[in-house]
Design the sequence.
């Protein structure tokens, strides 16, 4: 009788598990229970002994990641900030094209409030701060706020 080490049986075990869809389904369904009738029960000595290592499929569950809450960044209308300054803010801070910036500026002017974009909390907070700092440096009363979507 030839003595075989577990490392000698490794390719045999992998082959049996890899190409046998019935065993794969059973291993997935039972998740951790040893496979029946597989190489684990047959250690090659011809007898009915069950000495040897059992094999199974280990499944690892990944935690579900939750999408971050989104916040709308809004510009508020005032009677003192020039329209051209608002357009420049929209282009510089929010990366809007000239056409989009004019459209948003007119919406703010007519409706009193306009949405500049929707971002995760940290990004929205940074954009609001940039708008407020730039307006303050240029002595304009422009107001920018964020609200949860």
Sequence:
């Amino acid at each position: 009788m030839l003595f075989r080490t577990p490392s000698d049986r490794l390719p045999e075990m992998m082959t049996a598990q890899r190409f046998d869809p019935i065993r794969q389904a059973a291993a997935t369904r039972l998740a951790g229970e040893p496979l029946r009738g597989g190489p684990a029960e047959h250690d090659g000595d011809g007898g009915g002994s069950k000495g040897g290592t059992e094999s199974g499929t280990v499944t690892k569950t990944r935690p579900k990641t939750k999408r971050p809450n989104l916040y709308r960044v809004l510009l508020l209308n005032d009677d003192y900030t020039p329209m051209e300054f608002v357009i420049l803010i929209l282009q510089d801070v929010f990366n809007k094209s000239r056409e989009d910036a004019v459209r948003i500026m007119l919406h703010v002017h007519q409706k009193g409030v306009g949405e500049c974009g929707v971002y995760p909390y940290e990004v929205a907070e940074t954009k609001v701060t940039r708008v407020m700092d730039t307006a303050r440096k240029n002595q304009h009363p422009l107001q920018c706020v964020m609200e949860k979507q």
